Amino acid sequence: MKVTVETGCRLHLGFTNLSEDMGRRFGSIGLAVDQPVTVVDVEDNDITQVVARRSQRVGDLINRFCEHYGIEPCVSVSVRESIPEHVGLGSGTQLALAVGLGLAKVAGIDASVRDLAAVMARGARSGIGTSCFEWGGLIIDAGHRNDARGLSVPPTLVWHHEIPDDWRFVVAIPDAIRGLSGHAEEAAFKALPPSVRISHEICRLVQLRLMPAIVEHDIESFGDAMTAIDEKTGSYFSSAGRRDDSGVPGAWGLESMTAAGALGVGQSSWGPAVYGLTTETDAARVAEKVRARMRERGVGCRVFVGRGRNEGARVMVAVEDLIKSRPESLAGGPWPCHTVSQAPPCVLPWSSL
């Protein structure tokens, strides 16, 4: 049996809670974008075989999954496309969940996306990558809390909304030092002091400006809120090197987005990827202006235009494999492709903050 899993990337817009005074931390804001994508093929095989640029990492993911579920790792895994690594687009979570979901489908294991996130050790701080993989759209989660045993519970999705079809996100990835990850990221978070004040300010922006704007399809208000949230998030993380406004490519990217006419700008996670919100009509013009301004500064930069992705990961199975394994699934016609989840929750109003 061969399964293909395809998923988009995510933009991390910021955190709603940079303190633990209410028993949670790292409530996150983010959204799914339709490109770049990660595409993973998983197929039964006599031996474990990996075809990927970072084969050791994929091999570790396979071993982690198989050890947890007690199965033999006799599969072929091929990563046909992948999101750029360590630039702020959530590549690690999307790859881990795509591999995990593909393995689960091939092995006949019934596991939810949240189950797989725990098995693959994803979502240590933000649940945005996991929720975008499952639902797509704009995501707000409640952050981490500890259970009765003192163990961290994965973030709960508390609000979800589809992204308007005519909104576009211009994303620029400057050639720069990659963003923090792994142990360096953990150390940076531990060194940061809590901030109730900034948390309160971001929560007001989220609930009173960002959320109403997307419900009302008010792109200018959404852009203003997005920029304000990013500025407050950036000021908090500046001591950990999230952004340096003294003239590095990431800061130049933000300046270029604003000068090009983007309606809202920000840096995704640790960067260096930056994003600008615009309309479908203006997207190509804004993207070209960003490219030109970065060239003027002598900075190499990949720029692309994405649209909001309002669905979760897509799972594709060859029709002949469905006929062999689940003939009843073809009742009414062949259905070789489906998304992870069809009906994401939407909790209104978001009054917990």
Structure description:
With 353 residues, the chain is α+β, with helices and mostly antiparallel strands. A hairpin with a 6-residue loop joins β10 and β11. Helices cover 36% and strands 24% of the residues.
How would you briefly describe this protein structure?
This protein is an alpha+beta fold.
Please describe the topology of this protein.
Layout (H helix, E strand, L loop, with lengths): L1 E14 L12 E17 L4 E3 L3 H15 L5 E7 L9 H17 L5 H7 L8 H7 L3 E4 L3 E2 L5 E2 L3 E5 L5 E8 L7 H10 L4 H20 L3 H19 L11 H11 L4 E4 L6 E6 L3 H14 L4 E7 L6 E4 L1 H7 L11 E3 L14
Parallel strand pairs: 3-4
Antiparallel strand pairs: 1-2, 1-13, 2-4, 2-5, 5-8, 6-7, 9-11, 9-12, 10-11, 13-14
Helix pairs in contact: 1-2, 2-3, 6-7, 8-9
**Strand residues, percent:** 15-25%
Q: From N to C, what is the helix and strand string? A: EEEHEHHHEEEEEHHHHEEHEEHE
The total count of strands amounts to 14
What overall form do the CA principal axes indicate?
Answer: globular
CATH architecture: 2-Layer Sandwich
Helical/strand content category: alpha+beta
Tally of structural domains: 1
Q: What is the fold-level CATH name, i.e. the topology? A: Ribosomal Protein S5, domain 2
- Main sheet attributes: strand count, strand direction, barrel closure: 8 strands, mixed
Query: What is the residue-averaged pLDDT?
Result: 86
What is the CATH C level class, in words? Alpha Beta
Q: For the record, give the distance between the C-alpha atoms at the N and C termini, rounded to a whole number.
A: 47 Å
Report the radius of gyration as a whole number of Å: 20 Å
User: Uncertain runs with pLDDT below 50, 5 residues or more?
Assistant: 329-336, 343-353
H/I helix tally = 10
Q: What level of helicity do the residues show?
A: 25-40%
